[in-house]
C-alpha cells in the first residue's frame, strides 16, 4: 500500500471509530506533514483520496473538515438478549424460506440480501483467469482435485494464513462448495441427531436451518452487538447442556457485526478446551475489516486441534464460484470422508481459476478497494438512518463486514416493516429469522454492500417512514 493510502486509511479509521467527528477540522497539511513525518504531497494525496471517498471536504481558506462519520445516533447501547435457559427444538425454516424467497425478487432494492453487490468484485479479471487456467488444465486435474481439493489452491490458502500469522498446513485444508458446506460438514463430523449445539443469539439463519435439518437441538447464548458472545453465559450453558459443538462467528458476526477481541478469542478457546467442546468457527467476513489488520481467527489460539476454521471467497472475491474451505484440526479424516461421500469435490475449474488468481497477485489490492467502498457505504448508511429513521432507533456501527443491525423503536414489528417495505420494492432482513425463538421482533438487518446512489438513499427514507408509521 502506498504511503498516502496508509495515511488516508488511518484517518478514515479515526473517522469510523468516532475519534474524528463530522464537522471536526483536520490538521493543516503542514501540521500533518510534521506530525506524521511524511511529505506535504503525501498529505495532499491522502486528503484528496478521503475527499473522493466523501469522508472529508475542503472549505475555502479554512482547510479540510470531516464530512462523514460518527453520527449523533446512539450506537450499540441495547441490552443483549436474555439467556434462554432451555434447549430449543429449532423450527425456523418456513419463516426463513418465506423471507428469502421474497428478497430474491428482481428489481427489489436488496437491503435484505446477505451478499454485497456483484459489481464490487473483479469479475472480468476472474473470468479471464478462469478462461486461461481452464485451457491449461491438466486433463487429470478433475481426479487430482477431488477432496481434499486442488493442491495449489490449498497451498495459496495456507500462505494467506501464514501472512496473517497463523500456521495452518496445506494438508489440513479441505476445499468445499462455499463456507456453508464446510460448516455443515463440520457439524455432521461432530454431532448426531438429538445432540445439542451451542450457538449465539442472534445468529446466521443458515446455522439454525442446519441444526434443524440434522435434528439437533440448540442452546442459544446471548451475543453483544459490539464484542460478541457472553462468555459467562457460555460457561453456564457448557456446564448445564454439555453441547457437542459450538458454532460461532468470531469476526463481523452476521447479523450483529460484532467482533471478538483477541483476548476474548483466547478466553473462548480456553473455555472450550476446558470442556473439550469443538468450535466450528465461521469466519466468512474476516477479510472485510476497516482497521489496520485482519482480525485473528480464534483458531490462532487453538493448541489441541479443536477449532475448525471455515471460510470462503463468496463474500470478498468470487460470489457464485462456490469455493470455500475448512482448516480442520483434529477432525480432518471425518470431514474429508463426509465430503467424499456427499458431494465428492468442489468444482475443478473454479478451484484452478482461484488458485491462479491468488498466485498472480492482485487479491490484496482488490480487497483494499472493496474495504474502502464498504467503509464509505457504512458511513453513508449510518448518516441516512440518522436522518430518516424515527426517534428511538438505535444501531451498532461495526468495524468491518457490510451489515447494520438496527433496533427500531420499541414495539415496531420488523415482519410488518418487511411486508410493507417489499410492497415498496425494498427488501430487508427482519430480526426473527436470526433466532430459534423468533425473537428480535423489532430489529432489522440492513446490507450496506451496495453501491450508494439516490435509489438506495430513497429506500432508506421510505424505510424510515414505514418505521415511523408503525411506531406505537
Ligand atoms: C455468516 C455466514 N456464514 C456462511 C455463509 C455462507 O457462505 P458461502 O456463500 O461461502 O457458502 C454466509 C452467507 O451468507 C454467512 O453470512
Describe this structure in words.
- It is a single chain.
- The chain has 472 residues and is α/β, with parallel strands linked by helices.
- It has 3 domains: 3-66, Winged helix-like DNA-binding domain superfamily/Winged helix DNA-binding domain (Arc Repressor Mutant, subunit A); 88-119 and 370-470, Aspartate Aminotransferase, domain 1; 122-363, Aspartate Aminotransferase, domain 2 (3-Layer(aba) Sandwich), CATH 3.40.640.
- 43% of the residues lie in helices and 14% in strands.
- It contains 16 helices and 17 strands.
- The chain has helices spanning 3-16, 29-36, 40-52, 93-103, 123-135, 141-144, 151-163, 178-190, 205-214, 231-241, 262-275, 332-342, 348-360, 363-388, 414-423, 454-470, and strands at residues 56-59, 63-66, 88-89, 109-110, 173-176, 196-201, 217-224, 228-229, 245-249, 279-282, 307-312, 324-327, 394-395, 403-407, 426-427, 429-430, 443-447.
- A hairpin with a 7-residue loop joins strand 13 and strand 14.
- Helix 8 (178-190) crosses helix 9 (205-214).
- The chain is globular and about 70 Å long.
- The mean pLDDT is 90.
- It binds pyridoxal-5'-phosphate (PLP).
- The site of pyridoxal-5'-phosphate has 12 residues, from helix 8.
In short:
The protein is an alpha/beta fold and 472 residues long. It is built from 16 helices and 17 strands. It has helices spanning 3-16, 29-36, 40-52, 93-103, 123-135, 141-144, 151-163, 178-190, 205-214, 231-241, 262-275, 332-342, 348-360, 363-388, 414-423, 454-470; strands at residues 56-59, 63-66, 88-89, 109-110, 173-176, 196-201, 217-224, 228-229, 245-249, 279-282, 307-312, 324-327, 394-395, 403-407, 426-427, 429-430, 443-447.
Amino acid at each position: 500500500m502506498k504511503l498516502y493510502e496508509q495515511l488516508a486509511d488511518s484517518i478514515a479509521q479515526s473517522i469510523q471509530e468516532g475519534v474524528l467527528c463530522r464537522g471536526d477540522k483536520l490538521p493543516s497539511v503542514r501540521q500533518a506533514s510534521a506530525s506524521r513525518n511524511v511529505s506535504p504531497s503525501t498529505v495532499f494525496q491522502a486528503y484528496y483520496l478521503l475527499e473522493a471517498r466523501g469522508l472529508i471536504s475542503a472549505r475555502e481558506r479554512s482547510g479540510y473538515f470531516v464530512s462523514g462519520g460518527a453520527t449523533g445516533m446512539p450506537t450499540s447501547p441495547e441490552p443483549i438478549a436474555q439467556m434462554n435457559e432451555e434447549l430449543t427444538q429449532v423450527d425456523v425454516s418456513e419463516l426463513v424460506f418465506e423471507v428469502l424467497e421474497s428478497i430474491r425478487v428482481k428489481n427489489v432494492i436488496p437491503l435484505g440480501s446477505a451478499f454485497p453487490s456483484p459489481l464490487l468484485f473483479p469479475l472480468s479479471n476472474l473470468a479471464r483467469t478462469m478462461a486461461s487456467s481452464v485451457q491449461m488444465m491438466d486433463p487429470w486435474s478433475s481426479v487430482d482435485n477431488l477432496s481434499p481439493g486442488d493442491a495449489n489452491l490449498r497451498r495459496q490458502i495456507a500462505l494467506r494464513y501464514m501472512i496473517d500469522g497463523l500456521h495452518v498446513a496445506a494438508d489440513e485444508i479441505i476445499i468445499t462448495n462455499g463456507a456453508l458446506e464446510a460448516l455443515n460438514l463440520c457439524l455432521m463430523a461432530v454431532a448426531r441427531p438429538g445432540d445439542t449445539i451451542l450457538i449465539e443469539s442472534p445468529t446466521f439463519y443458515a446455522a439454525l436451518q442446519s441444526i434443524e435439518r440434522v435434528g439437533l437441538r440448540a442452546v442459544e447464548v446471548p451475543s453483544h452487538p459490539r464484542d460478541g458472545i457472553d462468555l459467562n453465559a457460555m460457561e453456564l450453558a457448557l456446564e448445564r447442556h454439555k453441547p457437542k459443538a459450538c458454532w460461532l462467528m468470531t469476526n463481523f458476526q452476521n447479523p450483529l457485526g460484532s467482533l471478538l477481541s483477541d483476548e476474548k478469542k483466547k478466553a473462548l478457546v480456553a473455555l472450550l478446551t476446558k470442556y473439550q467442546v469443538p468450535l466450528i468457527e465461521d469466519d466468512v467476513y474476516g477479510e472485510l475489516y476497516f482497521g489496520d489488520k485482519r482480525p485473528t481467527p480464534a483458531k490462532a489460539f487453538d493448541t489441541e486441534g479443536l477449532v475448525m476454521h471455515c471460510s470462503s471467497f463468496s463474500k470478498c472475491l468470487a460470489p457464485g464460484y462456490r469455493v470455500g474451505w475448512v482448516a480442520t484440526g483434529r477432525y480432518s479424516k471425518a470431514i474429508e470422508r463426509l465430503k467424499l461421500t456427499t458431494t465428492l469435490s468442489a468444482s475443478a475449474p473454479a478451484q484452478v481459476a482461484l488458485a491462479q488468481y491468488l498466485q498472480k497477485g492482485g487479491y490484496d489490492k482488490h480487497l483494499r478497494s472493496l474495504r474502502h467502498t464498504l467503509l464509505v457505504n457504512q458511513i453513508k448508511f449510518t448518516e441516512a438512518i440518522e436522518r430518516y429513521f424515527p426517534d428511538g432507533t438505535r444501531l451498532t456501527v461495526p468495524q468491518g463486514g457490510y451489515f447494520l443491525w438496527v433496533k427500531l423503536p420499541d414495539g415496531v414489528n420488523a415482519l410488518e416493516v418487511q411486508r410493507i417495505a417489499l410492497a415498496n420494492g425494498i427488501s430487508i432482513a427482519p430480526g426473527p429469522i436470526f433466532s430459534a425463538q423468533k425473537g428480535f421482533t423489532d430489529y432489522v438487518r440492513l446490507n450496506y454492500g451496495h453501491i450508494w446512489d439516490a435509489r438506495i438513499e430513497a429506500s432508506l427514507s421510505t424505510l424510515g417512514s414505514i418505521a415511523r408509521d408503525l411506531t406505537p
